Amino acid sequence: MRKAMSQRDAGWGAGPSERYEELAERFRPVFAEIRATAVERDRTHGLPHAEIGWLKEAGFTTLRLPVEAGGHGASLPELFNLLTELSQADSNVTNALRAHFGFTEDVLGSTAPEWRARWIAKIAAGETVGSGVSETGTAKVGQFDTVVRRRGADRVVSGKKFYTTGSLFADYIHLSADDEDGTTIVAAVPTGTPGVDIVDDWDGFGQALTASGTIRFDDVVLSPDLIKPDPARFPYAMAFFQLVHLATLAGIGRAAAEDVGRLVAERTRIYSHGNAGRTADDPQILAVVGRVRGNAYAAGALALKAAEALQRVYELHRDGGGQGTEAEAERAIALADVEVNQAVTVVTNLVLEATTILFDALGASAVKQGLGLDRYWRNARTIASHNPRIYRDRIVGAFAVNGTEPPRQYRVGTA
Fold first, then answer.
1. Residue 24 maps to which CATH number?
2. pLDDT tens digits, 342-357
3. Tell me, which GO biological process terms does this entry list (predicted)?
């Protein structure tokens, strides 16, 4: 297989570290295979079981683990830049692994040594985790309808989750529920446990292959070793999960830019009222291609810059906060949230514009389903609907004017 072009040679700029290209080269052949099937899978609803399997075999799901534990020791900027490259191949696959990488951060930041060691070993062995947090029922904000009850010596969970992204492809489900006293319980439930039913009923017009549908838990027994000792998430969780979306959007932008550039270069038909004998020489067409590419470049640069802020938080909290004072660590969390929040609207606007105007550089044939160009806008619009961007500018403005720190949690429910 021909060696993939480096990020720098492709015009997207240098990676986040001196070793980044060496790290990325391991995964780029897999990314290329994933991209080769993306249009057809989108058209036929072909879920990416095989594609995620390829990534597991290549060690992609162990990126953040220390080298001595069987991982790659990737920094957060390296991780997010690789997620951008993966999203350039297929944003569905990135979204399907979002919960897994978040769970990995929970493991790395855990202060419970036995639990941490157990799950590092599982992740190093290639096991993955999907999402079982969100609900669409009547629970109030901050509460769950899914409940863990005591039954004799056992704890059993019953309820229904939605937006269970990635769980259909995973070995475990990261479950959040309430116990009978209203205390939050967090557990990792094996997907094959009796009473667990995962349904691919996500019917969104974008990100259609993420299996972000329903999971039902019917008196599922939770053994003690599955329950996380501390239900709290890692301190930069909100910024992390939103930044996965920004990296995904940046990758969609890159894919759209490369497709429109290639299609314009291949185009032989022209309009009589155009500006050149070849579409590839028409300055108005070239300006559109340049705008799409510039938007994608800026989106990637913003995502990478925000990832640096998360790395600073991680380093301050590493090893129980031994790298800095508590006040420094708390301030770093707030500033990382600010950086991500102020990137959200900009990145979203850049990519939604890029995935819309790319059609202005092409003819009517560009809307044919075989090209799959519409999936870029559909996927970007769907991702942009998570944690609505309309609140982000207000949050950043409140920080800039009044010093108000961003909220630490984003939860959905009834008032």
1. 1.10.540.10
2. 999 999 999 999 999 9
3. fatty acid beta-oxidation using acyl-CoA dehydrogenase
